[in-house]
Amino acid sequence: MAAVLPSSLSPHICVLPSPDLVALLNEANLPPLHHLLQSFSPLQNVTSRTTALATVALASFALRFSDLGQTETACKEGEDARAGRTIDWLGARATRKASEWLDDGARVRTSFARTAWWDELRRCAEGDLAPSRAEGWNHPTAIILAVSTNSSNPLAAISALHSRPVDLPQWVDPNILRFTLVIHTPRSTLSDEECGALMNACKKQYGVHSHFLSLELGQPAFPIPLFTLPPRLPLPADASLPEIPEQQELRMSPTDLQQAAKFAREFVVMSLVPWMERCILDWNENFAANRRVATRLFSTTRRLFGTTTTTTTTSNGYPSSPGGGTSPVSATGQQPPPASAPPQQRRLAEFATILGDYKLAIPVWEAWRKEGRGGSEILPLLLAPSPAVGAHVAYALQPFQHAEQTALTQFRALLYAVRWEVGVPDFVPQGGDRWLSWAAGHSEEPYAAILLSHAALLAARAGGMRRASMWYVDAALRMEKSGIKPLAIHFLRQADEILKLRRNDDNVSPLFEPAVGPSPTGFPALPLRIEHSLARLLYSTGKVTESARLFAELFRAYTDVRAAHLLEEDSSHAQGIIDDFRVAFEHIHSTGDKQKLLAELQPAISLVVPAATKLRFDGHGSLGDIAENTWAGLDAAWSAFAKRQSLGASSNSNQAGIGERFWVDVALQNPLPVEIVMTKVRIHVETAEKAQRPDVETLDEIILAPKESRTVSVAVIAHHASKLRLTHLTYSFLSLLPMRESLARRGKRLDATPAQRQTPTYTPDTVLTVDVGNDAPRLDVSWTAVSREHDFAYIHQPGPHALSLARGEVHATSLAFANVGAKPVTELWLARTMDSAVVALGRLDDNEWQEVISSHSTLESPEPQQISLEQCHSSPKLQPGESCLVPIVISPPELGAVNVCIVALFRENSTSAFRCTRIHRSIAVHDVVETFVSAAPRANADGSFVLNLELENKGGDSVEITDICTISPSWSCSLLANTSFSPQLLHPSQSTRFLLQAQPWLEGKGGLETEQHTISMLAQIVGGQQVTPKAPPTLDLKLSNVSKSLPSGTSPRANGATGVHLPVIPPRAVDVVIQWSIPTEKRFGQLVLANQLTLGATHGSLNALLEGVRTGKAKRTMFAETDRAKAGLLNALEGSTWNEEMNPLSVSVSAPSTRHDFSQGPCSLPVSFSVHNYSASRSAKFVLRLSNDDRVPAGRKTAAFVGRLAYRGTLPPHGHSTVTARVWIPLPGQYQLGRWSLETHVADADASSSDFKPAARYLSHGQEHVTLDVSDA
User: Fold this and answer.
1) How far apart are CA 458 and CA 1100, in angstroms?
2) N or C, which end of the chain is more exposed by having fewer CB within 10 Å?
3) For residues 278 and 270, what is the distance between their CA atoms, to the nearest angstrom?
4) pLDDT of residue 863
5) Which residues does residue 825 pair with via DSSP β-bridges, in sequence order?
């Protein structure tokens, strides 16, 4: 419950001074009496008693004093009109004081301190003292009739005041305490005896509620600052009462101050509080009587059946039942005035609340609320924090939640919100910020904007940053509509600053942000909209320079790659930013301030992508879409090779000859969703001081479409030997603002020391440099093609389309090297990547067939190959102006776009440095033959598999299948039938099928060693140990060819993933190589089906390793990313080919059909069960159990097993066993065999033949429907 009630819920005391007292106070330079008494409120340590006679200590007891005449005048004005004047008055004060508030509150705005505009709004709302029909808080509780002894007849003056009628409406509570105050001063002509007689006569005639106040009215040495009174609504224009000026100082002596304070306390303690306690006792008796069971039942019946309510009035003029009260204010604010004073029940609740008797007040308010007459606005002040408080607030504001509200409903909602903010305990934790936003509703008045701003302030304190920013934006929009632009600008700045505050995230590792940069906070479109509105407001208030700076910063959101995808895709907003920036900059340009503000008005937008900007020389050709890391990998591979072979270092590749044209491929990216125009695009080149500047091309205009990425080439020609530094790109943004962007790339991130890891540190930026000279050899490289119809070469002219080849097609071509420099070339090397589809550099020689080859089961990148100029050219030197051809064979293994990347390195002699040129060609690979391969165990005793190879011609030409070959460490393949292979011609959309037989090949070596090597290397990797480089052991591969001969110029090869320390060929894998040709076009090639088949049984060789890592003691790490990466690695290994696990035993059933003479009786027939072990390394025990099914479906016959029903055995690797069972056939016909199951126990890998240790157990059931056909002989 509230420790201190809001001042608007305190007793309202009206003061009616006599004319002589008013003149006396004016002569003494004292404020009016009600202002004077207000300075002594609130009183401290006031006690009261509850209806149970319990003492309540009130730490603070506030009083509100007003002039009775002003109160009477306020009651004569309609409530709707007065509320409208109040709303307008609040807006006028906000307009007048906005700049003053912002100047006085120039402190750190993120400190979330209380704001002056909220304090002003709260004081104005609480300073309203006009009585209302909806509640009785402002109804006068007491009237002080004050006279002075300076009058000629003080007793007559007192009688005149008491006889004066109180001109208050009928709906105002008439139960008012009348108190007589007699002020005596030294200027009075009455003696002390006469004053005592006057007081005795007053008490005898008007009651004991009287006080004699003696004041000296002396002038103090120093005036006392007067407590600032709450602002109050000015009187209407037609009011006859004069305005009372507010005084800031109180000129009273200390003695007079003590006497006045004594009067204020005695008035409260001896008169007001006891009188209110007596009223509470009387009204509580009536309330208790009305709440008896019979009365409640009668009231319920009356309410349900619509009986009219009659109101009885007690002797004191108050209704004895709640029936005479008024209903709460409706949503439209229209309410007929009641015919009588407020109900006793409400006044009882109000008085009990004022005196702190909450045990009585809360039930009364609850009863009042249940009857639908209000009370929900007061209960939040009295109840302890709970969910019910929010429900009461929502119910109290429900009538005001409409788009169309009257001034009265708006003012009532404002008054409720102010009271809750002041008096509700734990206001913010209970959601008080939302209550303020509800109270603001849809109103566009300044008071609603202030409510929203204070709600945003409270939400920001509680950590609701996004909610606070939204409320600040809403408040700014309403302030802007009201014309109060200073506060609108302030609210927008507050919203922008709140959105920029970062929240600590404990779920992200400390090194995440330094590694990837700060992540965007919230929704980036919101601060962009806020800053745009703020810039527009600044421009409209005359702050053009600040507005232009902010407009320039608005582009930064579109350049943030982490937040750009969260922005709006609508281009209208971005176009609006550009248009507003152009208008602001043109205004600055017209005033002549352009030059001194040019650096500050650079838009925060970057159109240049330095990381993708490159130099291009004649020898490099067009890079196309090749990734830069491909060339970097080739350069690194050459550097390592040259270091091993002691070939010397390579020279800088960015070299150009004098007069040679080279290009700067500038990568541009438009981050905006609108079109951008760049004019006068030029590259700034730095040279030596005395060197002649090079010729740089200027691009007149570049139009970048929305979100477009483009590369533009700027040509540069140097005329003297020098070193050029290409530092910046200059252009005119929007054909208006000169801009320059750096072309330097950011240096590498350093992490060698703890300081570098904690604070991001980078190496110096890398600037594009070009060495211009005329003392180095130069080679020009072009592609040639070999005609398939004729045996001659022609120069290939690159067209708009890439070279189109079929998958696996063997394409012979050549590279033409021409020496266009001034020095000869004596040494030429070519370096290529492993996946560049280049099969051979030089002629493709015929290979001698080998049935068994030894391989390390790795695919390493091919080493650079030296080209013999003597074989390609007539002499060992390639003189200037001469050229030579280097044959090259290309065979793309995969579909899609394939890029051939080759680096040619050459030099003049063995002592000079190598120069390089890059060779690139794109190939579009399409499919000619679609393949599908599968395998299944063969039902025989040798443990073989049947391979099903299906081929379909997907092209437009006839394709001939010339040969089929398989490569495997453990299997030997041949045609299933003992027939010779003959080439098959497949016409378009025609398909064929080949059946191959795969038999175990046990002569090969290295299978077990390869598996052990894989386990040991993976143990080091998953265990976090230092990996020891070690090549895999030699693995024998069996090459099985169907036709026993290969076409000339082709060679089968195994494909796989790149690996240096881990083998790429599993011991049980089978790769299929298909040779094809297109006779009509003299094209041929080969398809390699790699890593698609794994035959035989495997036993989860990595299970023990993975289980040990998961259950073992793990190394502690502070980063959750490390644990997730390790778990992902373990899951990938668990599902890999190396860890497959299956039942090694397979069962096939043989039941031949037979004839029997059933005239001699039933018969028993044999049924063979063949059990084969497909494991190449482990033995297995099995138990074959046969069972007869008693539930035979109708219409079917089941052959029952007889005799032995369980068979046991042990099978070595690749072992085989046949079990013969017997079935009972009583009659001729077709029978189905009964059910059977096979239980398998696989031996451990380390188990010996004598000591069988089971490592795995499997249970399989018969799935075959074997039919036995027995006919009568």
Assistant:
1) 61
2) C
3) 12
4) 84
5) 878
